[in-house]
Design the sequence.
């Protein structure tokens, strides 16, 4: 039994190592310039090991998004917030900081991948950011912080669309401004309209 657990642990560590190295290479060179053999060489794994963990180079993008969601979820746990507006602003600040760290080239590649493959993971309302925003809006409505006529699911989707648009603009502008600051200012304006 211990041997099986050890193998599973080793497999998970290898998957994480491949993912992290691939994301670093994508960030540095752009996804199109990176070959699977480059990832394998940098990670010290065989091509077969790569394909055991990932069906394609592009599938790393979806796993990357899942990792970002997990990172944000972990960073939001057990935090104290003054109010629900601060919860939502902090979520976007965390997410956009992570995007800035990955860089506009990589995020641009993510958008290209999403458009070319039809992968809709980023739109899933089951993702942590959507659920967190919706829950925060529900709490804010119940406490009287936000207007009662706000539809939390619809508002969460709107805020996510808005930030995707700002992120797209940030990529077009080659990261020439702070995504964290620009998105934060814009979200704050919208949330002021939601205030009761």
Sequence:
């Amino acid at each position: 039994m211990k041997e099986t657990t050890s193998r599973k642990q080793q497999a998970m560590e290898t998957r994480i190592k491949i993912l992290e190295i691939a994301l670093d290479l994508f960030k540095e060179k752009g996804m199109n310039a990176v070959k699977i053999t480059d990832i394998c060489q940098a990670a010290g794994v065989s091509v077969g090991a790569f394909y055991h963990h990932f069906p394609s180079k592009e599938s790393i993008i979806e796993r990357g998004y899942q990792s970002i969601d997990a990172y944000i979820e972990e960073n939001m746990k057990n935090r104290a917030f003054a109010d629900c507006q601060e919860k939502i602003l902090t979520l976007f600040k965390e997410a956009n900081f992570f995007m800035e760290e990955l860089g506009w080239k990589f995020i641009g590649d993510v958008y290209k991948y999403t458009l070319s493959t039809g992968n809709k993971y980023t739109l899933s309302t089951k993702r942590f950011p959507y659920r967190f925003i919706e829950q925060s809006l529900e709490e804010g409505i119940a406490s009287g912080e936000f207007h009662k006529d706000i539809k939390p699911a619809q508002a969460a989707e709107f805020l996510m669309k808005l930030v995707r648009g700002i992120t797209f603009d940030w990529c077009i502008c080659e990261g020439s401004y702070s995504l964290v600051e620009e998105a934060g200012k814009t979200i704050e304006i919208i949330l002021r309209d939601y205030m009761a």
Remarks:
- Residues 2-29 form the longest helix (28 residues).
- The chain has two domains: 1-57, 60-194.
- The chain has nine helices and no strands.
- The two ends are 57 Å apart (CA to CA).
